[in-house]
Amino acid sequence: xxxxxxxxxxxxxxxxxxxxxxxxxxxxxxxxxxxxxxxxxxxxxxxxxxxxxxxxxxxxxxxxxxxxxxxxxxxxxxxxxxxxxxxxxxxxxxxxxxxxxxxxxxxxxxxxxxxxxxxxxxxxxxxxxxxxxxxxxxxxxxxxxxxxxxxxxxxxxxxxxxxxxxxxxxxxxxxxxxxxxxxxxxxxxxxxxxxxxxxxxxxxxxxxxxxxxxxxxxxxxxxxxxxxxxxxxxxxxxxxxxxxxxxxxxxxxxxxxxxxxxxxxxxxxxxxxxxxxxxxxxxxxxxxxxxxxxxxxxxxxxxxxxxxxxxxxxxxxxxxxxxxxxxxxxxxxxxxxxxxxxxxxxxxxxxxxxxxxxxxxxxxxxxxxxxxxxxxxxxxxxxxxxxxxxxxxxxxxxxxxxxxxxxxxxxxxxxxxxxxxxxxxxxxxxxxxxxxxxxxxxxxxxxxxxxxxxxxxxxxxxxxxxxxxxxxxxxxxxxxxxxxxxxxxxxxxxxxxxxxxxxxxxxxxxxxxxxxxxxxxxxxxxxxxxxxxxxxxxxxxxxxxxxxxxxxxxxxxxxxxxxxxxxxxxxxxxxxxxxxxxxxxxxxxxxxxxxxxxxxxxxxxxxxxxxxxxxxxxxxxxxxxxxxxxxxxxxxxxxxxxxxxxxxxxxxxxxxxxxxxxxxxxxxxxxxxxxxxxxxxxxxxxxxxx
Length: 690
Known about the structure:
This protein is α/β, with parallel strands linked by helices. It folds into 3 domains: 232 residues, 3-Layer(aba) Sandwich (Rossmann fold); 152 residues, no CATH class; 253 residues, no CATH class. It has 24 helices and 21 strands. Strands 1, 2, 3, 4, 8, 9 and 11 form a 7-stranded mixed sheet that branches. Helix 7 packs antiparallel against helix 9. The radius of gyration is 29 Å and the shape is globular.
């Protein structure tokens, strides 16, 4: 019953008026209605297809052919950056020059039969579908001669993607035929709003065409569904089916359960009445018994798995709400989900505010093939969520729930897994280079062993040569010292936090230190700014501001909370200092180019932000590369440590590994406060003063 996760979708609706042709009185109405349903998260499921939050509904007078082409190309690049499918709707006047069969869209500067001042739609679709990174293109063409839109077959089966292109087309008319009054677009929008009885959870090109042909008269609606990418997450689809209920059993079952059951039951004998499974758990159980009474078939087995999955999901949500109650929060749900998925190398769904119903629905109906029925994933999530909410994993109610969902072994395994994970996080080692008076390599490194966040041992390790090699040897000596204590405590040591002065942050990669094996292979290495341990008066005065900014970063529900600064914004230190003092940058700060050896720049920036990112690759980290960080932000900074390991092991796609990061999160800020209250302030240079 594993279902593929819905890929990200972008939408762009372009509807130009043509000055040389009859004014289309319903153009804006049709374009706006179509955009509205496609951009509806519950229907079209699309995000705006243009960057920087601009409206992706482009319509009206003054849209020249060049503007239209540039706008579409910008949307294609934006979709590629995010690995999204692009839904592209083109509405307006169209023509096919002479006796040719290629559709041209007419814009403000177009004249019929003149190619140069119009938009070649076939060429536009070829460029979009063949662009690396675009997860497919769905074209909606409402013009005269719309059937002239498809690219030539050789353009789809060759090109930059070697034929792994995906293109679906809905076209309002055949060649030589007019499209009247934007009827196609208006009826399409109405169909998406109403849904389609008997169809599955998503509406495909063929289903939509069949339904629209019954209501759009006088036009020969045509379609194309080409899929050359066998590794795609899912087939191209037009919209979600509004007839499929968002929830089942009183809202305790989610959308995936509804989609799966609708499709599975529809695949049974058409004469068999579809049972009403929306009332209560008993109704679902009666449905299961009815299915078991039918002759065995693949369709019956799929339907049985769907009903069983629904029962697991509903019973789990009921259990969580009753057992955890008021301690069940969206932050804890997200923490447990991300923790589980990160350990399994999986990505979360694009939902910044996951609910208990949505998460259980996702885990039950969209699980790895190695998890036969989703119960293992559900059990692991519940155990981790219970830990996050402070529940006792030995509570008999937890195992009783495991019996109710027919997964006692999976629940026992999940409890063991959660307890082992807790043990692996209890111990941590902090090594600091803060004792340097010059911000260079110190003569001694301080190390603290932390148990459950509290300092239990402290030791100093000499760096007699006061150089990089000596510092790395001292770090390895500290690690060995900590491992000896870990063996005594019978706890694993997995995390290594390093506090480093500004200048050394730019030149040193401590995770690559290690004689026998890299430190970054053995431990999750995190970099921090050592000046927070011994701040001067100015840093102390804005300590609360940095803490507030960390809270804002941690609570971000969508996107990446980073203000990216291009290299030119760093050219004037006084202007940059003013921007920082005036509160212009309130989130994390990212640099698109390596700052060279400018330690003072690092000090200035780190004084105002708990998260600083910068590239160490020669090509920098321009905007088109930010997508890899967007996809992994939820798992930072652990995702960075994993990206380094992937790069060392030869994974050429570990693009995140080109970034460096100082990550002064809540745990580190708390450690710094504890250090300052328990340790006499050391004498340091005025590092950190803005």
